[in-house]
Amino acid sequence: MSNVLKPLDRDPDRYLAVARATDESASDQLLTEREAQVRAQVRDVVAAEVAPRAADVDAAHTFAHDSYQALAAAGLAGLIFPRRWGGTEDTHVAYAVAMEEIAAGCAATSLIYMTQTHAAYPIWVAGSEELASRYIPGLLDGTRYGSLAITEPDAGSDVASLKTRATPDGGGAGASYTVTGSKTFITTGDRADVIVCFATVDPALGRRGVTALAVDGAAAGLTRGRPFLKMGMHGSSTAELFFSDVRVPAGNRIGAEGDGWRIVMASVVKSRISAAAQGVGIARAAYTRALLALHQMHGRKLPDEATFALADLRGDILRGRLLLLSIAREVDRSSSPSPGQIGIMKQSCTDLGWRASIEAARILGPFGDLADLGVERCLRDAKVTQIYDGTNEVQRMLIGRDTTRALGELL
Fold it and tell me: Of 141, 175, 209, which marks where a domain is finished?
């Protein structure tokens, strides 16, 4: 029984057949022809190159380099970026469906994939053309890895309280910043070739002092901690970064001094689409694995209790995908999407991934705990999506503020 799901992950043809059989026309109709094509392309790569490696990567705690490289080699790692840097100028909806597909096959690979986007995005929207040309093509073609360094030991969701200092040093052609401080829980931090670091030029300025810098991974004074041992996402590394008088040329500044807060706020829209899509993808993976395992055990006629539970999961996943796609479409159409809606999407979809994984494990009974089935991996991987990119408690707070603001003078 413990081998029942190995063919799903390791047999590309069966993986694709199951994915197609569990697609929903209600959400498919929200996709343009191009977005459906992107999904099909990503799904093919995931079936052939990502899903077959997922269990082994997880068991060995091995960085999913080959899995990410397969996506990059297929030209799928720069969906929302301009063509001049190797992107394809696709929609956020295309990015969301790609993220869902990757997360369904291997959540850890999806974390590497989205981190590349998160590192490249601030450089694109606020960096100089020279800086973007230097770093973004490599992030999109897989020859460079990147990290987004915001979180500190005493500063997570509150970006305005950052303590890492970026001290201006000199002027003219030799102008630079000296960066001192530390960052923690940095995805891909142990191997990043470029680190988009958020630091303050003056803590007394609060958010007005936060400044973004592109730090080269080979910079003198930059050291890295060993990757953390984690509950899930074993194929993606998370590490501490230490900056000891790291000199960063002024040309590596992203935007103006004090623009860091604005850049973070613009960037979290992308990162929260990423996390939400992970939630839907992980939920789908847990549901599909449980569905197939139960049919292996019971044949075509499932016990009523299992049928009812699976029906609820299918409905929950469809609702989550509809929410994800509709908010992603809103981001494509609006330069200032509602913070409340972004928060609802992130919180609801990542909570979905967690709940669906718990329920899938429950209805499988003792088999839900078996690593070969992959449901317990979904459960372990899902938890962190509720924590990063703004904890779901923070999302609820933002949703509440947005609701109050919308009521305005009525209160």
Answer: 141
Same domain, 213 and 100: no
| Count of domains forming the chain | 3
Task: Assign residue 30 the CATH number of its domain.
Answer: 1.10.540.10
Query: Strand locations in 66-201, DSSP E?
Result: 146-149, 165-169, 176-187, 194-200
Q: Which residues span the domain enclosing 153?
A: 146-257
Q: Note the pTM of the prediction, 2 decimals.
A: 0.95
In a domain, 1, yes or no: no
Q: Report d(CA 14, CA 292) in Å as an integer.
A: 12
Q: Which among 257, 287, 313 is the end of a domain?
A: 257
Show pLDDT as tens, one digit a residue, over the chain (411 residues).
Answer: 444 445 578 889 999 999 999 999 999 999 999 999 999 999 999 999 999 999 999 999 999 999 999 999 999 999 999 999 999 999 999 999 999 999 999 999 999 999 999 999 999 999 999 999 999 999 999 999 999 999 998 766 667 789 999 999 877 667 899 999 999 999 999 999 999 999 999 999 999 999 999 999 999 999 999 999 999 999 999 999 999 999 999 999 999 999 999 999 888 888 999 999 999 999 999 999 999 999 988 999 999 999 999 999 999 999 999 999 999 999 999 878 889 999 999 999 999 999 999 999 999 999 999 888 899 999 999 999 999 998 999 999 999 999 999 898 787
CATH number of the domain where residue 350 is located: 1.20.140.10
**Alpha-carbon distance 72 to 74, whole Å?**
5
- Name residue, tokens 């053309």: 129
- Contact in structure between 181 and 163 (CB atoms under 8 Å): yes
